[in-house]
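User: Please predict the structure of the protein below. I'd like the answer in structure-token form so I can feed it into my own downstream comparison script.

Assistant: Understood. Taking the following sequence of 119 residues as input:
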Amino acid sequence: MRYLHGALALVLLLFAGVQYNDPDFYLWIPLYLVPALWAGLAALRPDLLGRPLAVRGLVLCLAAALVGTAMIWPTDPGWWRRDVWWESEAAREGMGMMIIAASLLALTATALVRRRRSR
């Protein structure tokens, strides 16, 4: 799992890095960095991920990501098709929030399993 979380951290850092030319980069870079930091913690210090404070922080970040995903869910018909999201900023942003939420969901599941095993 450490390698998987490390790879996830690198991918999320890459996503944050390519936001430099986005008009609202000041919003999207931190949004990608939050799960990247959690994934880095899971990769480098997995023992910390099962602690109660870390679990609470992850659940809070996941809840915020789910609310954000619901708020900017793509409304374009066929938003998952390349020809649509290639042209639609709203579709790309919605998909970005889905990636963030999915990453945080996987990390929260890992943290909850770790917490259960440590009891």
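That's the full token string. Residues 2-118 form one domain.
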